[in-house]
Hints:
The complex is a heterodimer of chains A (86) and B (403).
Chain A: E1 11-12, E2 20-23, E3 48-50, E4 59-62, E5 65-69, E6 79-80
Antiparallel strand pairs in A: 1-2, 2-3, 3-6, 4-5
Chain B: H1 9-17, E1 21-25, E2 31-32, E3 36-41, H2 47-54, E4 60-64, H3 73-87, E5 92-99, H4 102-111, E6 118-122, H5 129-150, E7 155-157, E8 163-169, H6 173-192, E9 196-199, H7 209-215, H8 219-240, H9 244-247, H10 251-255, H11 261-269, E10 277-281, E11 291-295, H12 301-310, E12 315-320, E13 333-337, H13 340-346, E14 352-353, H14 356-359, H15 364-379, H16 385-388
Parallel strand pairs in B: 3-4, 3-5, 5-6, 8-9, 8-12, 9-11, 10-11, 12-13, 13-14
Antiparallel strand pairs in B: 1-2, 1-7
Amino acid sequence: MQLGTQRGRRFLVLSPADNVATLLDEDAGIAHLSDGMTIADKVPFGHKVSLRAIAIGEAVVKYGIKIGVATHPIEQGEHVHVHNCE
Amino acid sequence: MYMSITVSSTDLFDFASSLEWHGYRRSDGRVGIRNHRIVLSTVALTDRLAAAIAATDPDSLCIIGALSRGLQKSDEVMVERFIRSVLTHPNVGAALVLTHDRVSAERLAGETDAAIPIEYLAFMQCGGRAQAVAEGTEKLQMLASRQNKLEQRRSMVGQDAVALALECGGSDVSSSICSNPVIGDICDLTIAAGGSAVVSETAEFIGAEAVFEDRCPDPVTRQMVLDFISYRARLMDQDSGKDYRGTNPTRENIDGGLTTLIEKSMGAVSKTGTTDFVSALEFGMPPGAPGLHFMDTPFFSPVSLTGMMMAGCNLGLFAMGVFNPSGNPLCPIIKICGNPQTLRHWREDIDVELDGYFTGELDRGGAQQTVLARMNAVFNGAETASETFGEGQFMLPRLKDAL
């Protein structure tokens, strides 16, 4: 569990096992998390970004649970959604 | 304004151990957090007279479930289960039971093993409406004095006396990543302390079958939960003519950031924390042991809350996203909300405000302590918002056509 502070985008990692973070604010123009990690810009509130590279076929983990697999290679900080995960 | 404090799970245990829990210990060992003197209408025919009698005693709680007759066996069993569960509910300290006919009153009196003072009144035996209300009022006064003689009062109990109903309604992003996961933490804590919890609304778990495969060590429980889920999924598919798994997450869900069906379902699952499920229960059945239990119910929250009340839950935690007024008159429901807009409009209907989670003022540890502190206060007697407003219904699921 991490929660961002004032600088960069606020985010939430729901379980220590997760490889994605959920964005908690609407500042879609900012391209880094509050802990400094660079992320894609324009990622909306409530959407996910990867905390590390995820290979094709690898599990995407949120809530400590496999919620899907990567259908494309996902780089650290990339928006994770239906275009690269199912 | 919330303080932004970082609290590890160890700190949560420390905070929990500093709390005292005071409840009403019943002669059967169960613990209530309320001591209601109820007026129970056992059939829709007695609803109006029940309300008239309850109106004479401001300390009474009228329980009306619009209960039907002429039902097929499975529904009749459900009505009987409802009446029995209300009369044995730990939050009930005394009961006036109203029936239409004498035979029903005698049958109920014979079946009920009273751990509390109970009086019966059959209206067909009364000489008119005025006399019926007068007799009911007199019996209610008798119950009050019997309660006084018994000196029903709170005493110190352990956190193991907490029997949680877990619920969510008006679900949105805020409940899926904030209120529900925090409720899950409190559920874990409660079960670690020897308490119990029940979760319901089977349809919410469609897509999350893998979680139950992992968290049901008992193969019978596991199969029952999976069967409950596939049955509800089949019903929904038959009714809509669409494949639920194929059409979810919906376009709206995807716009909100949900990628897969299991991710959507995890919002609801996360309120169950991380412990294993001990048993799977049919609607309204009481669990036989402490721990976490799954109950098969329809997804309308007044119905599922009724089912969990019937299981003997003495307190509920409800994650609210957009506004939902659900409650249960017998089982106080704590409304927990992180959606800033819902909080702006409906603050007086909400017991725990977690919007600080989204503004950065409250972290998960702080949110856990906020919920636990409110849960402790409500357990010890503080009124919930839904109690203040008299929100909540008693509703049974519809099983078959009436005869």
